[in-house]
Amino acid sequence: MSLTRGGRGCAFAAIALALSACAPSITRAPLAPPSLAQWRAARARLASLRAQVVPRTLRVALALREPITGRVLEARGALAIAPPASLRMILLGPGGTTALDLWIDGDRYRFAVPAIDLLKRGDASSPREARRGLPVDFLRWWLLHPADGSLLWASREASADRLVLRDGAAIVDLHAADGGGVTARRTTWTMLPTRRQLDDETVDAERIGCGKVRYHQASTGLEVTVRCEGEEASPPSPRAFVDPDTLSEDER
Question: How many CB atoms lie within 10 A of CB 96?
Fold first, then answer.
């Protein structure tokens, strides 16, 4: 990142204003920019976080609170991750039936809940509104690239680093604790037909990788808790990331 002294000061002021306007529960960022040493330390911490995102297969339990009815879907299964683009999660409910099947490959996704005949597909051309209330964006971001984006601002706080990132249209305010815990607020403006809507998503995680994660989406009330119950020793097979709609029923 290369900015002149004056330009950098204006950028930091704009970031602080945006954070205080969009996320009032977060402490306002100081206007003073970090020192060169602080900036280098922040970039090193960011690189360390990114290095923790690796191919893995996890055994997980998920609880999803449906925002309209308040019903909670609980299931267990497996999650295969191949950063930076692909993941597949299959969760089983009572009797071993498929409760949830999520496939993501880059900008493409397929989200299925067979019990209620729900099947949604989309890609980069699909409006964000079409996947509101689904954990697609959250899982793509958190599992495949939680620390991606351009570093805009950083500070050292009590036993933690605070890193503010721009990831596409989103601003991510990430706190990485020395003990491994990570909390983040991701703020995005969604363009609707007649207005813009602020979408605020928060994550509270024990760590990047195998740990407990809580997610909340303010605009819909969607709540997701993912608890990691174990990790396989070997990375996932590439076959796990094949589009399910190209496979037979048995192969899925």
Answer: 7
